[in-house]
Design brief:
Helices cover 8% and strands 37% of the residues. By secondary structure, the chain is mostly beta strands. Strand 15 and strand 16 form a beta hairpin. It is globular.
Amino acid sequence: MVAFPEEAGFPVGGNFPIKYYLVQMHYDNPNQLSNRTDSSGIRFYIGKELRQYDLGYLTLGADSSAIGLAIPPKVERFIVDSYCSADATMNFPEEGITIVSAFPHTHLQGRTVWTKLIRNKTAVQYLFDAEAYDFNYQYENRLPQSIKLFRGDELATRCIYNTMNKNTITLGGERTKDEMCLHMMTYYPRMNNMYGCVTTNNRERTPFDYSKFVEWLLNLTWTPERAVQWQEFYDTTSRVLMYGASPNLQFNNMSRLPKYEDLKPVPCTKDQNVDQTTTMPVPTISSQSTTTNKAISYTSPIRQEILVFVSLISIVMTVTFI
């Protein structure tokens, strides 16, 4: 169950520009099992009083295509970074926005998803750190403390994958066996001109024929040396930043991902006071008042996994049978 803050919610009816919510079901049945049924559903609770702010969703991460994501097999730790620059956040309202929850999302190979707040090329804090991400246990993480973002802020997102169980490359896509790198933030007040801020590898350094490009990737012979070179390519290649809202998306070329001064590591001690809940605050790690939001590890015994993903104009549910 997702509970929104008392001051914000989703309006229903009236002059709200979104006139309907769409429920879209994605089923993945790779073993072709028969006689499978689904009784999933969504229940909405509607209040009697209109709240002060409308909620919105801001999606960060990488484009879910073979150009944005191509992860070699037999790699214990493959890193995909993305960056939402100040050019994009200048579209924030003058008073800023308030982040209240985070929904990290990859598929089966994902192990870690995090986003850091960058100010003046210095990491200030995590927006959320799903350090021990598990595809089989996904949910919207309500932050223990809301986080304020302002114009000019920048956001660095990282997804880490493990493909030791794969013999072939994993490409970006919607299927469960494909991959994604997304981090959805729930915030208020809602912006009509900013739904997402994602990056992809620059097409100038890849073939323009997408189908031939995918075929080339699938036919590559992988060695440990080539996998290392592939990681170096992802670390240094030029990117295209895509931000805004369709049909008025903005595109900015980035010669490479910006560098920033990272957070200082925090030593773990026995007397460290940690709240063992689904989101854990840890000590301040910079001169500014900061909170690190972490997700702890879970092992789910459930054989049927349900992913509920809510976007501004759609609610997507994915059911995987294994």
